[in-house]
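Appendix B. Raw example, untouched.
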Amino acid sequence: MIEHFLRPDSVEQALELKQRYQNEAVWFAGGSKLNSAPGRSEKRVAISLERLSLDWIDWDNDCLRIGAMTTLQTLRDSHHLPPALYEALGFVYSRHLRNQSTLGGEIAAIEEESVLLPVLLALDAVLVFGDGEALHLENYLQQPDDRLLTEIIIKDPYRACSTRKISRSQAGLAVLTAAVAIDDHNQVRIALDGVAERPLRLRDVEAQRLEGEQLEAAVSAAIFPRDDVRGSVAYKRYIAGVVVADLYADCQQKGEEIQ
């Protein structure tokens, strides 16, 4: 239970407070995850990021840079946003949640049914932390920690990319979320969430350069979901293959249109 709520005025002060309280402290962004299940925090100290001036969106040499405290709604309302990212932000069905939730908070939570992490993986997002270190999102997800996330960078935001969420209703639990992207060098990136404990990239499938039914079969064989209220193992394997194959075809068409 949070007993102390601290409001540092700079990144440096925030890092000093985290060093002082260490595992007793948690970063507090929008609060949408810390105040509700399953992400409710048991830490006793909250370090607010509200005053750190991390709510901004910028373009730098064709790179999209996003401050970690930027809310999902602010991001969705911004101009020239990559279409796939815009669509993924809409997967968060509630405007109230989009007004409260921050992009950094969504990344740090690493929820099993995250609807944003697949598209960020497909777009090869880079995370920047309070100590200045930069790390690809894919690497961060393999070994997450509680460092202060300050910025998200997408260096090639307009690569051909498509994403889709499968759920029984708009407000229902996501069965899975998938994203596929193809860059200028024809390199494919396939990302899924809802079929493992955390979002993952299917590198082995990407390397096979498949499409159609062969791609469907390869994706189905590469994942190991579990039975739960959202669907059976067989269903999740089947729908993941179908969705990824469809998204790959969409990306191919978008790539031809860009050319």
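End of appendix B.
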